[in-house]
Amino acid sequence: MRLDLKPLAQQPGGALPFAFQMDLSEVEWYGGKPFAQPVRVEGQVRNRAGALELKARLDTVLSLTCDRCAKPFQREKTVEHGTLLAFELANGESDDIVELDRDGGLELDELMREVFLLEMDTKNLCSQDCRGLCPGCGADLNVETCRCKREIDPRWAKLSQLLEPEETDQ
Predict the structure, then answer these.
(1) Residues with Cβ within 8 Å of residue 88, at least 6 apart in sequence
(2) Which run of H or of E encompasses 114?
(3) For 56-93, how does the pLDDT look when each residue is reduced to its tens digit (9 = 90+)?
C-alpha cells in the first residue's frame, strides 16, 4: 500500500487514515511459519505543525511452538508503532525518522512488515512457568515427573555416601 503524502504536507492539522491486512504466511521464523492469520494494520498519518507523524497498530494471532516443551500454542501479538516522516533528511540517515521517496510517497506495507518482524520475540513459551522436557528421558515435566535414574558424578560419589543413612546391624 502506497501513501501519497504531498497533499497532507500542505494541510496543517490534517490526517490521512489507513487500514489494510498484510499476508506474512510465507515468512519462516525460527523453522516455523507462525503467521497463519493476516496481520491487521490500522493507523494514520497526521500533520502536526508541519511535521508528519505516523502512528500504527498492528495485530494478529500467531501459531507458535513452545521452545521448552515443543507443544503448539497460539498467542495474540500487538505492536504499537510511531515515527516521524520527512521529505528529506539533513544528515542523510536517521533511525528515528523515515524518509519519504522523492515523489512524497511511502511504501507503507514494506515499513509495517519490517516493524512487525523486528518486534517478534526470539523465544516463545506456552506459559511463563513452562518446565519443558527432561533432557534425559524426554518426559514433559509439565505433565509428568522425570523417569531418569539419577546418576552421580563419580567425582562426587564419596560425598554422596555421607548423605545416605547408615545401615546398622540389629
Answers:
(1) 99
(2) helix 108-118
(3) 999 999 999 999 998 999 999 999 999 888 777 666 66
